[in-house]
């Protein structure tokens, strides 16, 4: 069986922890493991391989985190733009044999009851082997208005329902045959594609065309123009709500989609005052607070039921119960053309990381770390000059037609407009300080002439 792991989404409801370029599924929230890593570990006992569906930025995050797990036998499909779950799953299924069983899972869910989870997955496999399209219905523990519901008659699906109001949610909870829609599925790749072709033929045909035109080397890269032609739709609307082959497995697996800071608070360890455990937190008569921050000391005095999230470049303070409004904050940041919704102070790149140490008008200072055997793109800038000072390791620096080695406590200078490249040919990380000076120091002032990672 193949685990198709859907890595799309930016997790805006957990801003400022989650950003577009470091979404919540890759943030290490639990015992130094990310939700993505927990997903892989949870499913590897009954899946022979993983099929990661993501964009190019998330691909490198997934690759790094799989290397940490020493997890091999992985396949990757890169989408240039997102078109929701139906096309994403279809594109992956086109790469598999007809009878291959697939377990489709989001990458950002938490499941704590592994024993029960293993049980329901085996039930799903048995039904999928008989050509059913299986979904997992989460046994509700309260009247949740933020989830869609599945109405069941035994293992048969009677209907899918949109997110209800509170009164309707309470009725669902009392009825006992309504389940939260988990977004997890199990079926044969070929059976799903047949049902997609039957009920959503345009999505099927445009996805098939995109797959046929894709570039396939170490991964499957879908072309932008082909992806644009695929209608955007979820697997629920495109197939599951229409097919007669759908079954639902009631699943009491201690599941959470961690869709808000309130739900995250419930899952994190607490101290004797019901504050989340944090070495940087100094509490004075404060109770029932979510405190998140790794960079500065956070002191609270006589406050209860708050959410305090400090990420160095942004501070969020909210009442518990109101954290769903974080999406409003993200929308405001977008209106202001701020990068705070998009990227952290430390940004992860396929070659390593950079951390912004200071950012002011006319100059920016970064700490750059390049992994052994990696190099940045061959590039130039139109609006800034750069000074590089190596702190550790030996950097291979190309400026124009000249290539030289820069060692610790040595530096180099790149003039505005000069073609240049930074590489690490050694066995240890290269760490350097970069000072950018110019009228504009934005990340979009990069003209890539050659790139090992095929970025534009």
From TrEMBL:
Residues 280-333 form the MannoseP isomerase/GMP-like beta-helix domain. Residues 338-451 form the Mannose-6-phosphate isomerase type II C-terminal domain. Residues 3-272 form the Nucleotidyl transferase domain. Gene3D superfamilies: Jelly Rolls (2.60.120.10), Spore Coat Polysaccharide Biosynthesis Protein SpsA, Chain A (3.90.550.10). One of its GO terms (molecular function) is mannose-1-phosphate guanylyltransferase (GTP) activity. The keyword Isomerase applies. It is an enzyme of class 2 (transferase). GO terms for biological process: GDP-mannose biosynthetic process; polysaccharide biosynthetic process. InterPro entries: GMPP_N, Man1P_GuaTrfase/Man6P_Isoase, Man6P_isomerase-2_C, ManC/GMP-like_b-helix, Mannose-6P_isomerase_type2, NTP_transferase_dom, Nucleotide-diphossugar_trans, RmlC-like_jellyroll. Its EC number is 2.7.7.13. NCBIfam families: GMP_PMI. This is mannose-1-phosphate guanylyltransferase. The lineage of its organism: Bacteria, Pseudomonadati, Campylobacterota, Epsilonproteobacteria, Campylobacterales.
């Amino acid at each position: 069986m193949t685990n198709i792991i859907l890595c799309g989404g930016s997790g805006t409801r957990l801003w400022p922890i989650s950003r577009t370029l470091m979404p919540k599924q890759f943030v290490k929230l639990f015992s130094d493991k990310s939700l993505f890593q927990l997903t892989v570990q949870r499913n590897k006992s009954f899946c022979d391989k993983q099929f990661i569906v993501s964009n190019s930025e998330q691909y490198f995050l997934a690759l790094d985190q799989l290397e940490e797990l020493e997890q091999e036998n992985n396949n990757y499909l890169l989408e240039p733009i997102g078109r929701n779950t139906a096309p994403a799953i279809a594109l992956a299924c086109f790469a598999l044999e007809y009878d291959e069983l697939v377990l489709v899972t989001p990458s950002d869910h938490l499941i704590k009851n592994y024993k029960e989870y293993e049980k329901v997955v085996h039930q799903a496999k048995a039904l999928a082997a008989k050509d059913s399209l299986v979904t997992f219905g989460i046994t509700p523990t309260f009247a949740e208005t933020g989830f869609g519901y599945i109405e069941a008659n035994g293992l048969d699906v009677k209907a899918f329902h949109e997110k209800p109001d509170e009164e309707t949610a309470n009725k669902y909870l009392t009825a006992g045959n309504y389940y939260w829609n988990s977004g997890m599925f199990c079926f044969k790749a070929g059976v799903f594609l047949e049902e997609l072709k039957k009920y959503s033929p345009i999505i099927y045909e445009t996805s098939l065309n995109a797959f046929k035109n894709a570039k396939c080397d170490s991964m499957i890269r879908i072309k932008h123009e082909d992806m644009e032609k695929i209608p955007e739709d979820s697997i629920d609307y495109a197939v599951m709500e229409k097919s007669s082959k759908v079954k639902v497995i009631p699943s009491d697996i201690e599941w959470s989609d961690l869709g808000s800071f309130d739900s995250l608070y419930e899952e994190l360890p607490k101290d004797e005052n019901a504050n989340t455990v944090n070495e940087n937190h100094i509490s004075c008569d404060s109770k029932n607070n979510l405190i998140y921050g790794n960079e500065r000391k956070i002191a609270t005095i006589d406050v209860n039921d708050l959410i305090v999230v400090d990420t160095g470049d942004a501070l969020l303070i909210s009442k518990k119960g109101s954290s769903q409004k974080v999406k409003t904050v993200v929308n405001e940041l977008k209106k202001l053309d701020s990068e705070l919704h998009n990227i952290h102070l430390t940004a992860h790149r396929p070659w390593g990381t950079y951390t912004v140490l200071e950012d002011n008008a006319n100059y920016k200072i970064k700490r750059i770390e390049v992994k052994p055997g990696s190099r940045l793109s061959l590039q130039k800038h139109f609006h800034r000059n750069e000074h590089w000072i190596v702190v550790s390791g030996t950097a291979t620096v190309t400026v124009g037609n000249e290539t030289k080695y820069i060692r610790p406590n040595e530096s180099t200078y790149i003039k505005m407009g000069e073609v240049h490249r930074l590489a690490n040919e050694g066995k240890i990380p290269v760490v350097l300080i970069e000072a950018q000076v110019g009228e504009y120091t934005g990340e979009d002032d990069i003209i890539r002439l050659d790139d090992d990672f095929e970025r534009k």
